[in-house]
Amino acid sequence: RQMCIRDRLHNGSLLAVCPVDGYRSGGETQNNTDYKVHLVRSRDEGRTWRDAAPPLPFMTATPFLIGDTVYLMAHRRGRRDVLILKSGDNGSTWSKPFELYRGSYWNAPTGVAIRDGIFYRAVGTGGHSARIETCVLALDLKNDPMDPASWRKSNSVHYPGTPKALDRNLYPGGSGRSVFALDHWLEPNIT
């Protein structure tokens, strides 16, 4: 499990997103209902956390704040699609998801970057049986984040694989090497 905490909301609270994976009960399949994104809030500088909203049916999600609006960039189960949702009440309720890009896309709740009025988010493409690549999504903050036409996508860069020296064999398979040895990756990130 990972927890992603973003900017302090305009009401002073903190909002965190915690994806809960379903590997233990069926793996990464599109019909695995154990994948959920939990949203939790702290009103006391992170000492205690409570549910901010009911869990959302996504594989992963990353929150970000533009003005007083909280957005959530999410991915469907099976490493599919890039979705965006918004909340005008600090994450208590969410809009229906809008699809920004269709296809094999994924990421964990890793960082985003904003520079010179442009929002950037790295995502992976492909995975498991496909060619693994990384690309960057960008949004001019003068535009509406909920409008797919506001976004642009960079060219993709191929992931060359994890060097054997860095394969710590965390998930050993029958061959003695990690079951991810042929498909190991680091989450795309941007700074």
Overall description:
With 191 residues, this protein is mostly beta strands. It is 0% helix and 41% strand. The protein has strands at 4-5, 14-20, 36-42, 50-56, 60-66, 69-76, 80-87, 98-106, 113-115, 118-125, 133-140, 151-153, 157-158. Strand 10 and strand 11 (133-140) form a beta hairpin. The model is unreliable at 177-183 (pLDDT under 50).
Describe the structure in brief.
This protein is mostly beta strands.
Q: What is the helix/strand order?
A: EEEEEEEEEEEEE
SS field, number of helical segments: 0
Termini Cα gap: 22 Å
Major β-sheet, in short? 9 strands, antiparallel
Averaged pLDDT, please? 80
The helix content, as a percent range, equals under 10%
Radius of gyration (Å): 17 Å
Sequence stretches where pLDDT stays below 50 over 5 or more residues: 177-183
Strand content: 35-45%
**What would you call the structural class?**
mainly beta
Would you count the extended β strands for me? 13
User: What is the overall silhouette?
Assistant: globular
List the main descriptive attributes of the protein structure presented here.
single chain; 191 residues; mainly beta; nine-stranded antiparallel beta sheet; four-stranded antiparallel beta sheet; 13 strands; 0% helix; 41% strand; globular
List the helices and strands and how they pair.
Layout: E1 4-5, E2 14-20, E3 36-42, E4 50-56, E5 60-66, E6 69-76, E7 80-87, E8 98-106, E9 113-115, E10 118-125, E11 133-140, E12 151-153, E13 157-158
